[in-house]
Every structure is written in C-alpha cells, then in structure tokens.
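Today's session is about reading a structure prediction critically. Students often jump straight to the picture, but the first step is always the sequence itself: look for stretches that repeat, for charged clusters, for runs of hydrophobic residues. Only then move on to the predicted structure, which in these notes is written as discrete structure tokens rather than atom positions. Here is the chain we will use throughout the hour.
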Amino acid sequence: MDTYALKRKNSQPQEPSAGCTFKNPENAEKIPAGKLIDELGLKGYTIGDAMVSQKHANFIINRGNATSNDFLQLVEFIEKKALSLKGIALQPEILMLR
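Below is the predicted structure for this chain, in token form.
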C-alpha cells in the first residue's frame, strides 16, 4: 500500500461518507474544521443513522440507514453549535441541495 493510501486509511473513516463536510474556517484562529468539531464534543454525535466520525470529526458517516434528512439535520446542528459556542460560521465543503 502506498504511503498516501496508508495515511488516509489511518486518519479518515472507512465507513460510507461524503468526505470532509466543512471547509476549514479562514477568519478563525486557523483551527481546522475537524478539530473545532472535536472541541465542541461532537465526535460520535448522531442524528438518525448519520454520525460525526469518531476517527475524524469533519466526516459525517452513514451507520447503515442514514437519510438525507438525517445528514442535513446533523450538518445544521454542527453549524449552530460552532456559531453559538465558538462564534465561527462553518461553511459546507460539499455541495448540498436543500
């Protein structure tokens, strides 16, 4: 296995996901989105079958039967927490049709 693939396997969840959910905030303390979400205590937080990954908090994984509504509700919950508790407006990295 090449070095990049091994690093990715060790640092990113292997469960189904859409990849990194949020862009790293530009105007914040230069804290990566995953670290911010982790600091909010949201690793493992679930709505329906959508869950913030325990391995990398900027990934929302599908635990088996997550719906698009589960995913969108979790994204909105994370956005609200980041804004209310840290004053940081997270921007989605993935394209979502709402």
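Discussion point for the tutorial: The beta strands are 17-20, 46-47, 50-52, 59-62.
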